[in-house]
Amino acid sequence: MLVIVALLSFGLSFIFAMGGVGGALALVPALMAIGIPGGIARPIGLLVNTVSLGAGTIYNLRAGKFKIGAWWPVVLFSLPAAPIGAWCSTRIPQDMLAAFLALFMVGSGCLMFLPNRTTLKKARVACSPVCGASLGATSGVIGGMLGVGGGGVIVPVLYGMGFRSHHIAMVTALVVPFASFTGFIAYAAMGSMTLDTVAVASLAALAGGILGTKVMHRIDQLRVKQLLALTLIVSGVRLLWKLLS
To answer: Residue 208 and residue 213: Cα distance in Å, rounded?
Structure first.
């Protein structure tokens, strides 16, 4: 079981780090599919996001590829929101949470397939503090509740607002680790984790996240976005099918 967890954590962290999303969005349902309860899969997913995207953000900042700038409200408001979402997950039936996660994955994947007609000259580079705060709070609650870190909220929203794919990937890689970490701490405080599984998943995610972030700057982000969208849709439909059957 631990070998499967390690392979899933490494592979999904590598693939999703290339788009700045974090592998938890696909890792949580994958872990649930191999028999790990949702209450354990969610904190594992959040820790994987923290480790993989945190390493990617450090790389981006040190290399001078991204500056925090006006994005601090998104980070700030996501920090308390994620633990609130984690607490909400204990008050909602597990099948309902799984169905919400599946629909969320399919919806996010479909939105990512929408064409982006933003040109380089018209592309946005920042959002207002109010917009950032709202986005941080919303993504934090949903990410903490589902154990996915909020990248599935941030990516389609910023994409619809006219940001370039490459910029979105770096913004998400900045925001998601912070919300994921506070969400993970909330789950740990509630006793929802197993140390051996968490250790294996985090180490594998660290390697996958660093490698994926380095590859991010060398490949076409449009192709990455399409791959991530397809992965989310297929995984979401599979989870829905399992719930309905």
So the answer is: 9
**pLDDT of 172-181, one tens digit each?**
878 888 888 9
State phi, psi for 182 to the nearest 5 degrees. -65, -35
pLDDT tens-digit series, residues 62-98:
777 666 777 888 989 999 999 999 999 888 888 888 8
What count of residues does the chain have? 245
Q: CA 146, 150, 156: angle at the middle one, nearest 5? A: 120
User: Average pLDDT over the chain, rounded to whole?
Assistant: 81
Looking at the structure of the chain, the number of domains it has is: 1
- pTM to 2 decimal places: 0.77
Domain of residue 34 covers 2-244
Alpha helix stretches (DSSP H) within 1-68: 2-17, 24-33, 38-62
Q: Rounded to an integer, what distance in angstroms lies between the CA atom of residue 48 and that of residue 202?
A: 5
Separation between Cα atoms, residue 243 and residue 245, nearest integer Å: 6
What span, in angstroms and rounded, lies between the C-alpha atoms of 237 and 227? 16
Residue pair 171/61 in contact by the 8 Å Cβ criterion = no
Give the three-state DSSP class for 163. Answer: strand
Judged on CB neighbours under 10 Å (0-12, 13-18, 19+), 237 is middle
Only one residue has tokens 């980070």, namely: 75
C-alpha 231/C-alpha 235 separation (Å) is: 6
